[in-house]
């Protein structure tokens, strides 16, 4: 994501140097943490960030030699150095880096919005509509049924009666239709892929955010009487949902216009503007109960499609995001709960396989209905496997809303998302390579540098 | 909004404004060479002023500011041996280091005896306060020489001497504080001798400098370079902090190593030097907010002793320069006072000390450093200008035309090898 060189341009010597540097990186922090095991917290956080950034960058470079995406390298560095394996980065540090996650998600949403050109959306509107409906229906229904059947094997759900189990299954079904905008943007940013698969992935995943928000709210209304055995449909929930959606769009439009005006009139210090948006505005939006992801996406969309400042904003985001995204994904790897994955891996893997199959079948059907070209028909499913922050965020929301089943639901979701998080990006990059949409020469030329703060 | 967010937002605004000020469109020479105005602003918004920045909030973000201070040391280490495109002259560098050490020793001795006479502190804290104050107050900020040169078009042998000496003087406070940190009681590396601890700090810097040099060595790409530089420097600073070592000294060594062994030293230097002022100004502001006027009894007497000792030591330095350097003779012994300006490194080191060793002694060091910066700002540039005028190295026409500092001589502009002529900021070294 930070835009590293293609593997072809780097020989064995370079890789050996990178492997050695990676060993030094691990070794230095290993020695420091073993010499001062009692010191965690703030002092560990600085070294932790440095480690995640450096180890993530080097690991991604090394994994590139076997065709894996950079994102997998960042994740793997985080997993190995994280609290469950070598403990170089402790839980406190992982939690302390949550502002980086907020910033990264804001940048990803903004970049996603900027990438959504109205002309492109018009081109893929038919495919998008069919895919949205068919994917939501098939994946949602299949995964609801799967959880309803397999839920009996999950310790937390084994004693549930049919009604609550159906409620849990419905929630799982809707959770399964979430995708990962961050993984999608990460792969596209690295590969600079251009073509029908990349276009479809970007348009679908970014716009599905709105659908997911609506569906989750609707399903939670449905599941509440089933799981809690009381309550029913409330117009208040619909009102809240409407407020959130309309508020996000209104705020995003305003922000987009303000950003465009700033870009046109000032045009400097964009790094600091993006940091302020990521750190401060995200918190503010959460406070006023507006969906930050949707709002930032709309802002990016407005800048791209209603003004001429889109390329400038995208350039600034790429410059800022290069380093932020490495830390974000490496931290996501460190955040991965390995013991929980060990505990639930069989059931989680089964659910992931079923979700993958359902996604594939739905993609084939929707492509057939929309009369897509052969490449889209063959590979469009690949980008829809990844799950990450959005799914985890929703699982926490669902867990909090349904405390009776929340803990088990969240644990299973974390395990399943972990698998999808690791496999999804690999599949997507593989598909882009096979579809011939990744062009290394262009990536080499067009990758932008991360300029220092004073230069942006 | 929480205090932390408010602080970050405020610092972002400061950094934003400062990045605007140092941008290519601003007037050259705008602002003070030491960044003293931000120090004063910090005092104004700190607990002793308006109270907008409470100490607890600043302390919560202390590791971030220590990292920022360490980054400054990295930038200084990276450009330590280079002025513009040329290498620093060895004789001048040695002179700078030796005279800075003498100045530091003079201030430290004066303070030690004053502390003894006033009965303030005892044992290690007394010694640490005296030594640390001597170390942090002995450098000459390289920006003063450049600032005067740019505003008054100074060029010549003496200007080069002073530029090289100022640059070299940074080594003394950085390594001095690095050594002092190693002697601090209850260090996380208490099982090792102090010599090993000093070596550990330098070793971490050297290893990470080599790692960065090797990773950047084969092909220089700015996009990769930022990830590698930030990753290695944060890791080095974080490990040093974790082990109770001076992160600033470690990163200085890292920068120095990188500049010694990397074939891309100039590209890297120009790449990172633009970050110096946007990082320095928030650090100066936070250092100002942390200044404690009630750190010790008789603190103002100690401040007076330290400042008087510094001025006296500078005059001695001037005498030495006049005696040893032919180019300095026309300028007279007051040229030493022109070297009295301290800046970024003083504040950064003093602030780092307050974080590593919180207490009245380190608070006093910060206050003394702040007072030194202000005094240096009042005396240094003016004395330097007069000294260079006496040496015949300023251009009279340009000296009269102070309101238009854009009139930098073309030869000085050519000396700057900053790659983009549109982006000549305050920082690519002209002289």
Q: TL;DR of this structure?
A:
The complex is a heterodimer of chains A (456) and B (431). Chain A has 456 residues and is an all-alpha fold. Chain A contains 19 helices and no strands.
Helix/sheet category of chain B: mainly alpha
CATH fold assignment of chain B: Na+/H+ antiporter like fold
Q: Report the radius of gyration of chain B as a whole number of Å.
A: 20 Å
Count of runs of 4 or more consecutive helical residues of chain A: 19
Total separate domains of chain A: 2
Task: Specify the number of helices of chain B.
Answer: 19
Most extensive interface: pair and counts?
A: A-B, 55 and 55 residues
Number of spatially distinct domains of chain B: 1
Helix share of residues of chain B? 55-70%
Gross geometry of chain A: globular
Q: Architecture of chain B in CATH?
A: Up-down Bundle
Mean pLDDT of chain A: 84
Describe it.
The complex is a heterodimer of chains A (456) and B (431). Chain A is mainly alpha-helical and 456 residues long. Chain A folds into two domains: 7-96; 100-455, Na+/H+ antiporter like fold (Up-down Bundle), CATH 1.20.1530. Chain A contains 19 helices and no strands. Chain A has helices spanning 12-35, 42-64, 70-81, 91-96, 98-115, 118-123, 125-150, 162-176, 181-191, 196-228, 235-265, 270-287, 292-306, 310-335, 338-370, 374-379, 389-401, 403-434, 440-446. With 431 residues, chain B is an all-alpha fold. Chain B has one domain (39-392): Na+/H+ antiporter like fold. Helix content of chain B is 69%, strand content 1%. Chain B is built from 19 helices and two strands. Chain B has a two-stranded antiparallel sheet with strand order 1-2. In chain B, a hairpin with a 2-residue loop joins strand 1 (82-83) and strand 2. The radius of gyration of chain B is 20 Å and the shape is globular. Chains A and B meet through helix 1, helix 2, helix 12 and helix 14 of A and helix 1, helix 4, helix 10 and helix 11 of B.
């Amino acid at each position: 994501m930070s835009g590293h060189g293609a593997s072809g341009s780097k020989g064995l010597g370079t890789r050996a140097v990178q492997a050695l540097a990676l060993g030094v990186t691990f070794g230095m922090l290993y020695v420091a943490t073993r010499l001062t095991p009692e010191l965690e917290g703030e002092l560990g956080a600085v070294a932790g960030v440095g480690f995640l950034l450096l180890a993530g960058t080097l690991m991604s470079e090394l994994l590139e030699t076997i065709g894996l995406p950079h994102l997998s390298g960042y994740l793997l560095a985080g997993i190995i150095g994280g609290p469950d394996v070598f403990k170089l980065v402790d839980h406190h540090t992982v939690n302390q880096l949550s502002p980086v996650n907020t910033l990264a998600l804001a940048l990803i949403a903004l970049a996603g919005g900027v990438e959504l050109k109205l002309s492109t959306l018009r081109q893929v509107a038919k495919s998008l509509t069919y895919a949205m409906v068919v994917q939501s229906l098939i994946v949602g229904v299949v995964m609801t049924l799967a959880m309803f059947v397999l839920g009996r094997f999950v310790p937390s759900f084994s004693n549930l009666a049919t009604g609550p189990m159906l409620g849990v299954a419905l929630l799982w079904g809707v959770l399964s239709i979430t995708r990962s905008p961050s993984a999608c943007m990460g792969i596209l940013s690295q590969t600079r892929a251009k073509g029908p698969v990349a276009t479809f992935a970007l348009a679908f995943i970014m716009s599905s955010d709105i659908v997911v928000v609506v569906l989750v709210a609707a399903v939670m209304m449905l599941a509440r009487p089933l799981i809690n055995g009381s309550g029913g449909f409330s117009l208040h929930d619909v009102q809240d949902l409407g407020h959130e959606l309309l508020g996000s769009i209104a705020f995003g439009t305003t922000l987009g216009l303000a950003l465009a005006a700033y870009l046109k009139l000032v045009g400097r210090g964009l790094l600091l503007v993006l940091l302020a948006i990521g750190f401060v505005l995200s918190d503010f939006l959460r406070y006023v109960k507006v969906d930050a992801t949707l709002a930032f996406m709309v802002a990016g969309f407005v800048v791209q499609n209603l003004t001429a400042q889109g390329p400038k904003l995208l350039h600034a985001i790429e410059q800022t995001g290069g380093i932020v995204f490495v830390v974000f994904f490496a931290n996501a790897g460190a955040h991965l709960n390995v013991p929980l994955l060990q505990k639930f891996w069989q059931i989680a893997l089964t659910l992931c396989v079923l979700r993958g199959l359902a996604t594939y079948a739905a993609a084939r059907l929707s492509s057939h209905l929309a009369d897509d070209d052969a490449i889209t028909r063959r590979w469009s499913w690949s980008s829809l496997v990844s799950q990450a922050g959005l799914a985890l965020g929703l699982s926490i929301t669902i867990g909090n809303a349904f405390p009776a089943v929340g803990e088990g639901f969240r644990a299973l979701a974390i395990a399943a998302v972990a698998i999808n998080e690791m496999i999804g990006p690999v599949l997507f990059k593989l598909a882009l390579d096979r579809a011939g949409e990744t062009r290394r020469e262009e990536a080499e030329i067009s990758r932008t540098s991360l300029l220092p703060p004073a230069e942006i | 909004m929480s205090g932390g967010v408010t602080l970050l937002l405020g610092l972002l605004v400061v950094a934003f404004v400062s990045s605007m000020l140092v941008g290519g469109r601003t007037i050259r020479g705008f602002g003070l060479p030491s960044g003293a105005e931000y120090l004063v602003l910090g005092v104004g918004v700190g607990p002793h002023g308006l109270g907008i920045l409470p100490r607890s909030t600043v302390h919560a973000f202390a590791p971030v500011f220590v990292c920022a201070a360490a980054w400054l040391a990295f930038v200084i280490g990276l450009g330590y041996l280079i002025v513009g495109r040329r290498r620093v002259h060895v004789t001048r560098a040695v002179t700078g280091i030796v005279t800075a050490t003498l100045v530091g020793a003079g201030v430290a001795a004066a303070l030690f005896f004053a502390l003894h006479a006033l009965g303030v502190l005892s044992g290690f804290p007394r010694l640490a306060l005296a030594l640390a104050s001597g170390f942090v107050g002995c450098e000459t900020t390289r920006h003063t020489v450049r600032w005067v040169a740019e505003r008054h078009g100074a060029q010549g042998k003496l200007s080069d001497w002073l530029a090289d000496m100022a640059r070299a003087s940074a080594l003394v406070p950085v390594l001095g504080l690095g050594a002092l940190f190693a002697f601090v009681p209850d260090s996380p590396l208490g099982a090792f001798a102090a010599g090993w601890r000093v070596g550990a700090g330098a070793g971490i810097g050297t290893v990470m400098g080599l790692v960065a040099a090797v990773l950047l060595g084969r092909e220089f790409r700015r996009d990769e370079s930022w990830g590698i530089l930030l990753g290695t420097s944060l890791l080095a600073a974080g490990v040093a902090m974790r082990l109770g070592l001076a992160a600033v000294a470690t990163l200085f060594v890292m920068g120095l190593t990188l500049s010694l062994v990397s074939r891309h030293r100039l590209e890297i230097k120009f790449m990172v030097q633009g970050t110096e002022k946007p990082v320095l100004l928030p650090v100066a502001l936070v250092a100002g907010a942390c200044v404690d006027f009630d750190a010790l009894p008789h603190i103002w007497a100690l401040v007076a002793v330290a400042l008087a000792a510094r001025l006296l030591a500078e005059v001695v330095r001037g005498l030495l320069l006049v005696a040893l350097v032919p180019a300095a003779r026309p300028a007279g012994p007051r040229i030493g006072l022109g070297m009295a300006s301290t800046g970024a490194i003083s504040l950064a080191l003093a602030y780092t000390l307050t974080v590593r060793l919180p207490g009245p002694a380190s608070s006093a060091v910060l206050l003394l450093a702040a007072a030194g910066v202000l005094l240096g700002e009042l005396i240094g540039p003016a004395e330097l200008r007069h000294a260079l005028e006496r040496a015949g190295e300023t251009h009279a026409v340009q000296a009269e035309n102070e309101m238009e500092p854009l009139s930098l001589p073309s030869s000085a502009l050519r000396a700057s090898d900053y790659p983009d002529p549109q982006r000549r900021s305050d920082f690519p070294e002209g002289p």
